[in-house]
């Protein structure tokens, strides 16, 4: 009996592992955050949507589409956090190799995913990893993305116009609140400021680009800035080809001081232009609309995630916005984008799109471009192998159940035989008496 149970348990575990390990990653849509750690490009939406793309040996300069084998699922890593974690993690640590997650419940503690060791450092309720809080209220939470200064190991997240930013020191595990806030810039307004994009410049200036204050779009020509060195706020007036206001867009910073703003929505329509450049090497900062080669027709992204990898901006997932949205919720009505695209930013005068990783069958591709397809025979072989293993596991389960059934029948018959013998003996003793 114990052997039968053991066989069934092992078979079920193997079956479960096969299902989880061999399923095609089918992620996409909004809510993803991206981080680059070494040669690994991490994507996180929640604990059940966590994976990285292995860039080892990958040349970004070609049009090769990343093979599915490079998409490494991390959702089944154990041990992992047992309590709810924030949707807004950050990449930090002494070597910028740890993805840090704040707990959503109870005390102020963190969970860490170590990208070098490729495992969770589970710290639930460990007093060593409770955060030192300075001027932080008891009911503190993370409601916006973090922006990290890799030189100092400090990360910043906007809280509100009244409260300014929260500051996390990943080296000393300290969580503090800025002494200043931007309320004076808006006449002590109690309105919320949301749906902006942000970058941090080498001089420690955090730029909050676009978004909306209350129900009003924040002008792209007037950028809210927080100085992390002096703990002060200001509005920077820009010049040039100022793009239209927008929400649900992304912004990334290049090594030569260009801020690339991509995608988003304005008044329920795709923001225009979809790609704009802010040159922060000039004073005042100057906007321009770049020349784009190989534009991706029919692709208008919002609620996506973007990150710089060498001379490319990698933009992934989000919503492929249509010409209309729900006027009440302002949520896109069109389909999720399940693919990853890259933009060659090496030439400041012209930019070029290409498909980077494909995760669905109906993929918008760059004009006049034919991406290199993944090896179909490898995928077919993997599918056949998976099917064979599943069949073997099912057969083992059936055999185990059959053995267990025969065992129970034999046990039942033996029990009845014993009862019959006992009954006969009792009758014999009665007759003798």
Q: What structural class do you assign from the helix and strand content? A: alpha+beta
Radius of gyration: 29 Å
- The order of strands across the largest sheet is 9-13-12-11-10
Strand content: 25-35%
- Specify the biggest β-sheet: 5 strands, mixed
Number of helices: 2
- Measured as a percent range, the helix fraction is 10-25%
Query: What's the β-strand tally?
Result: 34
Taken from the alpha-carbon principal axes, the silhouette is globular
Termini separation: 42 Å
How much is the average pLDDT?
A: 81
- Unreliable segments (pLDDT under 50, ≥5 consecutive)? 12-24, 323-332, 361-382
Question: How would you explain this protein's 3D organization?
Answer:
The protein is an alpha+beta fold and 433 residues long. Among the domains are: 1-25 and 376-433, no CATH class; 31-37 and 238-374, no CATH class. Helices cover 18% and strands 32% of the residues. The protein contains 2 helices and 34 strands. The chain has helices spanning 2-22, 376-432, and strands at residues 33-37, 40-46, 49-54, 71-73, 90-92, 98-102, 110-114, 119-121, 132-134, 147-149, 154-160, 164-169, 174-177, 193-194, 197-200, 205-209, 212-213, 216-217, 222-227, 232-237, 239-240, 250-253, 258-262, 265-266, 269-270, 275-279, 286-288, 291-293, 301-302, 305-309, 312-316, 319-320, 340-344, 350-357. The chain has a 5-stranded mixed sheet with strand order 9-13-12-11-10, with no helix packed on it. A hairpin with a 5-residue loop joins strand 5 and strand 6 (98-102). Helix 1 (2-22) packs antiparallel against helix 2 (376-432). The chain is globular, with a radius of gyration of 29 Å.
């Amino acid at each position: 009996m114990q052997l039968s149970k053991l066989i069934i348990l092992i078979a079920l575990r193997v079956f479960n592992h096969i299902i989880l390990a061999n399923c095609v990653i089918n992620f996409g849509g909004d809510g993803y955050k991206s981080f680059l750690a070494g040669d690994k490009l991490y994507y996180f939406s929640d604990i059940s949507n966590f994976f990285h793309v292995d860039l080892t040996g990958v040349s970004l300069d070609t049009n090769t589409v990343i093979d599915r084998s490079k998409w490494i699922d991390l959702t089944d890593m154990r041990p992992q956090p047992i309590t709810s974690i924030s949707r807004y993690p950050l990449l930090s640590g002494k070597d910028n190799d740890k993805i840090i997650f704040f707990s959503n419940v109870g005390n102020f503690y963190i969970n860490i995913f170590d990208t070098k060791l490729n495992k969770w450092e589970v710290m639930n309720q460990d007093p060593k990893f409770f955060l030192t809080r300075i001027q932080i209220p008891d009911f503190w939470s993370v409601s916006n993305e973090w922006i990290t200064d890799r030189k100092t190991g400090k990360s910043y997240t906007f809280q509100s116009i009244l409260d300014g930013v929260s500051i996390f020191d990943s080296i000393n595990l300290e969580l503090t609140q800025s002494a200043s806030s931007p309320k004076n810039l808006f006449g002590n307004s109690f309105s919320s400021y949301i749906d902006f994009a942000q970058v941090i410049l080498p001089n420690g200036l955090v730029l909050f680009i676009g978004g909306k204050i209350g129900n009003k779009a924040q002008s792209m020509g007037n950028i809210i800035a927080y100085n992390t060195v002096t703990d002060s706020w200001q509005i920077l007036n820009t010049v040039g080809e100022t793009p239209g206001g927008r929400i649900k867009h992304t912004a990334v910073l290049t090594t030569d001081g260009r801020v690339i703003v991509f995608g988003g929505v304005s008044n329920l329509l795709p923001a225009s232009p979809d790609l704009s450049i802010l040159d922060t090497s000039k004073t005042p900062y100057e906007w321009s609309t770049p020349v784009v080669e190989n534009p991706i027709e029919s692709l208008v992204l919002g609620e996506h995630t973007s990150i710089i990898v060498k001379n490319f901006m990698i933009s992934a997932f989000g919503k492929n916005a249509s010409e209309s949205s729900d006027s009440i919720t302002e949520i896109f009505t069109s389909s999720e984008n399940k693919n990853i695209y890259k933009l060659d930013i090496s030439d400041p005068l012209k930019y070029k799109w290409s498909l980077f990783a494909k995760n669905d069958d109906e993929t918008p591709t760059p004009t006049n471009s034919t991406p290199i397809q993944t090896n179909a025979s490898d995928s077919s072989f993997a599918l056949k192998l998976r099917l064979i293993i599943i069949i073997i596991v099912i057969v083992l389960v059936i055999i185990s159940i059959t053995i267990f059934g025969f065992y129970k029948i034999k046990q039942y018959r033996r029990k009845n035989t014993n009862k019959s013998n006992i009954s006969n003996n009792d009758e014999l003793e009665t007759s003798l008496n």
